[in-house]
Design a protein that fits this description.
The complex is a heterodimer of chains A (329) and B (169).
Chain A: E1 5-8, H1 12-20, E2 26-28, H2 34-39, E3 47-50, E4 59-61, E5 67-70, H3 75-80, H4 82-87, H5 89-97, H6 101-106, H7 109-114, H8 165-171, E6 175-180, E7 183-188, H9 189-192, E8 211-217, E9 227-231, E10 242-251, E11 254-263, E12 270-271, H10 273-279, H11 286-297, H12 309-328
Parallel strand pairs in A: 1-3, 2-3
Antiparallel strand pairs in A: 4-5, 5-8, 6-7, 6-8, 9-10, 10-11, 11-12
Helix pairs in contact in A: 5-8, 10-11, 11-12
Chain B: E1 2-9, E2 12-19, H1 24-31, E3 50-53, E4 56-59, E5 72-74, H2 87-94, H3 104-119, H4 139-145, H5 156-167
Parallel strand pairs in B: 1-5
Antiparallel strand pairs in B: 1-2, 3-4, 3-5
Helix pairs in contact in B: 2-5
């Protein structure tokens, strides 16, 4: 690991100022991903600004009936939070499907959103990777592709975003509150993560020194019957090949509204807006669920080594939506 | 960069100066001679380094010591009280829940933390939605909740009953 200076600030604006002064620095929260990347020398910050104690570790009610999740809320606390379990069960399920008990105790809400891809070439400094070293090439294009993207990838990068939590949050229209050098801003979670394009080194739209302070969940009554499903190579403690977060509002056998997102398929947690459109007004049947999944996956461009993900994602969507409908009967 | 920190380990306070790169695991093993947490993968994948960090189970290999200044740490070596092994330690012996033993301290500390999580009503991904008032800790629950602790001897067949025996007392 490269040497670094460790700094603490008195408050959020102090931490932002410290990082602005350190162009090669990084914020540290739970450290479960960053410290690992530093050991691998994939990341080599010369300054760490510890922000774990600077943002809220509480989940609070918002006046509009939503919830505000402090950036420092550990993944384990968020998963066990009674309001989250009751009102947004897919978020609790997504968190519990991720990592291990030990990691969830350390990992924070904002850190989970900002974790880096687990593409094996990104994590191996002996191989070319455009995300780690822009312009060096993409080893994954001719390599091991099981964990890689089928949607939204570019010639430069085929990596996937590893978070389960973010998939549920993106389906819920969550928004991120961020504090930067020029003040606070609110970013819809669907706009936080970037598709790789020509700049795969940039995972998100955040500027250097901008710190996530909270995540807001808007009220959504039918999210109380939402589900998260994860398909992976082991029964537990593995990243998703494909995951699905879904909420359905069904009345008299017809879908009135839907929220749907996919994980493990793209550089971002993938909000399935085409499938949602196809679902609205459709009968709540397996046939329409399959059609909706097909509408979303029509844009899929699988790689030579991950063509199985297209039918896998389709069937995972169908099964998740059927689970919701069957639970309501 | 070196920083002076305090760590309370198994009820004993230590002051030490560490390089900022030192993990809690390396501070325990290399600086304080507390070798019950093991270095398996050193990447948060195997759980052999599990300690209770301020009361919660955590991978000590991914926690920077400087970021946990003042922390209360309990390792497997600190679980015994007044010369009596912790019930989970006794149960692992009674059930022959290890072969080489390298993962065992991490398994046992993780199980201690896991049972506290169950007592607090925390769900797991296999907990049924109807179990909001409590968790029935069956073998499926134990396997899921202990999935962050790998055993390369594959002593799982005895680890699960060893934990279940304590959980069901």
């Amino acid at each position: 690991m490269k040497p670094f200076r460790y700094l603490r600030a008195d408050d959020v604006s102090g931490a932002v100022a410290m990082l602005v002064e350190a162009p090669g620095g990084a914020f540290l929260a739970g450290g479960t991903n960053l410290v690992d990347l530093m050991k691998l020398e994939v990341a080599a910050p010369d300054v760490l600004v510890d922000v774990r104690h600077l943002t809220s570790d509480r989940v609070e009610e918002l006046p509009d009936g939503g919830l505000r999740i402090g950036a420092a809320v550990p993944n384990s606390d968020l998963a066990a939070n009674p309001a989250i379990r009751r009102r947004y069960p897919m978020l609790s399920e997504a968190l519990l499907a991720g990592a291990s008990g030990q990691l969830r105790n350390l990992a924070t809400t904002a850190g989970n959103l900002l974790q880096r891809t687990r593409c094996v070439y990104f994590q191996d400094v002996t191989t070319p990777c455009n995300k780690r070293e822009p312009g060096s090439g993409c080893s994954a294009r001719e390599g091991f592709q099981r964990q890689l993207a089928i949607l939204g990838w570019s010639e430069a990068c085929v990596a996937t975003h590893p978070s389960d939590m973010a998939v549920a949050m993106v389906a819920l229209d969550a928004a991120v509150l961020a504090q930067g050098p020029t003040g606070p801003r609110r970013i819809p979670l669907t706009e936080l993560h970037r598709l790789p394009g020509e700049e795969p080194e940039r995972d998100t739209v955040l500027e250097h020194g901008e710190l996530i302070t909270a995540v807001d969940l808007p009220p959504l009554a039918f999210a109380a019957r939402s589900r998260f499903r994860k398909v992976r190579d082991r029964a537990s403690y593995a990243f998703a090949l494909v995951s699905v977060a879904a909420a359905l509002d069904v009345a008299d056998g017809v879908v009135r509204d839907a929220r749907l997102a996919l994980g493990g398929v793209a550089h971002t947690p993938w909000r399935a807006t085409r499938a949602e459109e196809a679902l609205r007004g459709a009968p709540a049947t397996e046939r329409s669920f399959r059609d909706a999944a097909g509408a979303e996956l029509a844009a899929a461009r699988p790689l030579a080594g991950n063509g199985f993900k297209v039918p896998l994602a389709r069937e995972a969507v169908v099964r998740t939506l059927l689970d919701i409908v069957e639970a309501e009967r | 960069m070196e920083v002076e920190i305090t760590l309370r380990v198994d009820r004993t306070e230590h002051r030490l100066t560490v390089d900022t790169r030192t993990t809690v695991l390396d501070a325990l093993r290399e600086r304080l001679g507390v070798t019950s947490p093991k270095k398996g993968c050193d990447h948060g994948q195997c759980g052999a380094c599990t300690v209770l960090l301020d009361g919660r189970r955590a991978n000590s290999c991914l926690a920077l010591a400087v970021a946990h200044e003042g922390a209360e740490i309990v390792t497997a070596a600190g679980l015994a009280r007044d010369g009596n092994l912790h019930p989970l330690q006794r149960s692992f012996i009674e059930h022959d829940a290890f072969q080489c033993g390298y993962c065992t301290p991490g398994q046992i500390v993780s199980a201690v933390g896991m049972l506290r999580e169950v007592d607090a009503g925390w769900p797991s991904v296999v907990t049924s939605e109807s179990d909001h008032d409590g968790v029935a800790l069956d073998d499926e629950e134990i396997r899921e909740r202990m999935s962050g602790n790998l055993c390369r001897c594959a002593a799982y067949a005895n680890i699960v009953p060893a934990i279940a025996a304590v959980a069901h007392r």
